[in-house]
UniProtKB/TrEMBL annotation:
Entry-linked InterPro entries: Na/Glc_symporter_sf, Na/solute_symporter, Sodium:Solute_Symporter
NCBIfam families: sss (TIGR00813)
Subcellular locations according to the entry: Cell membrane
Broad class of the protein's primary localization: membrane
GO annotation, cellular component aspect: plasma membrane
Protein name per its UniProtKB record: Cation acetate symporter
Membership in a protein family: Belongs to the sodium:solute symporter (SSF) (TC 2.A.21) family.
Transmembrane region(s): 27-46, 96-117, 138-159, 171-189, 201-220, 253-275, 287-312, 342-370, 391-410, 416-440, 447-471, 483-504
Any one Gene Ontology molecular-function term assigned to this protein's record: acetate transmembrane transporter activity
Source organism: Anaeromyxobacter diazotrophicus
PROSITE patterns registered for this protein in UniProt: NA_SOLUT_SYMP_3
Lineage: Bacteria, Pseudomonadati, Myxococcota, Myxococcia, Myxococcales
Amino acid sequence: MLTSARQLLDLAAQAADYKLGERNNTALLFFFIIVAITLVITYWAAKKTKTSSEFYAAGRSVSAAQNGLALAGDYMSAASFLGISGMVAMKGYDGMVYATGWLVGWPALMFLVAEPLRNLGKFTFADVVAFRLRQTPVRIASAIGGILTVLFYTIAQMVGSGNLIKLMFGIPYLWAEIIVGVVMLAYVLFGGMLATTWVQIIKACLLLFGVSLLTVLVLVKVGAPTDLYAKVAHEYGQKMLEPGALAKNPLEAVSLGLALMLGLLGLPHILMRFYTVPDAKAARKSVLYATGLIGYFYIIIPIVGFGAAVLIPGGQAAIKAIDAGGNMAAPVLALTLGGTPFLGFIAAVAFATILAVVAGLTLAGASAYSHDIYVNVIKKGKATEEEQMHAAKRATIVFGIFAVGLGILFKGQNVAFMVGLAFSIAASANFPALFMSIVWKRFSTQGAVAAMLTGAFLSVGMILLSPTVWVDVFHNASAIIPLKNPCVISMTASFIVGIVVSLLSPDPLAQAKFEDEKLRTYLGVGAE
């Protein structure tokens, strides 16, 4: 490994004349190899994807280890790789809040949600919420919350991908967004969940290898981690290693922490993965595998961020000049330490990361419409396989077009920060209703709908009026709501409204079915 590191360092000198944004054949070679491999997988998966179960859940044929890697791949998104490394490079210690927050939600996911989800549901988390409640209102409300969450999560991935393609190809941001949208749609439309799963597995392995190599190169250059931190303090001051650079308001810090920890339990594209394994035991084991892989990734990614701050010539100013959000810190560090071959590899891995995650998000967004609204609300559960597949593919195309448009609108935002907002919506709109439907007997249909709509609209409304959108995107002088992350208010409101409305409108039929739900939750009796 160390020999490889030194060889790559030598290559950096050969690439001294290369300028970012110029087209480079070596870098593009890695890029096209990875895209070609993933398209071959999509072709193979397309031949195995004929039914709605195969399209949404890979025919429940994915093993625990495979699903663990795919879960890790879904979670180690552009926000984790590009966003956290950039956040640490620009903001220092506070960037690590994202890495820590995103990790600690996994034990809760394993013990609270994994088993009930697999035993009660079929394709989406709404299957669980609506298990003993009235189908139509609950599915409409859950589809609204799910689609809003997925849209905000997708914005972050699309912004990261646009910057990356622009950096590698030297083409305009607009065309970069369109290229990403077209390739991603090819994955989902033809390969469904099976293609998305295998693309995630390959991408997770490549990303872990790439970040590990980048970490080793940083440590070879500066010495032990303590030497790296000393260098950071010397160049930027001790404040770079202390909290307060990102979240200065304590309420803001608490809100961000809640969103990062509990948002995971409401992410539709993560929850959907538990339907791809054969049973609840495999679902729990897959979370265990994913937690180990993600934990390792989040431990080493701050080293990449701090390494970028001190090793890239020009430091933070140079990183910010390339992308205002700092998202290109890791690729530029790869160029600095390993030359254009390593830049090509890291950029290709990052691009595969974005494509795979956007594919998963698109699948989750499309299923919220096609399965929850079209099949269960419009067709009353009586749609044919052909009708379900057509609805899913139409929804996929519409969602893909929205993703490209939003990626263009939110150009220049830090992707980790944007995903933090998506987590806030998930924690407010989806998590309270999902949790109460599993553990609280008196939870009613009216309470579920009120909780989901309150969480969804309150969190999105507060984000639109916050400095992030009201000032940065709409260019107003000051924000109507100063809080950047609304989770502490919107999630609390969702819980309170859900409890109060359930108590005011008891649902005897739902309460009578609670014991049956517990039996199926814990024993898996009747689970598909």
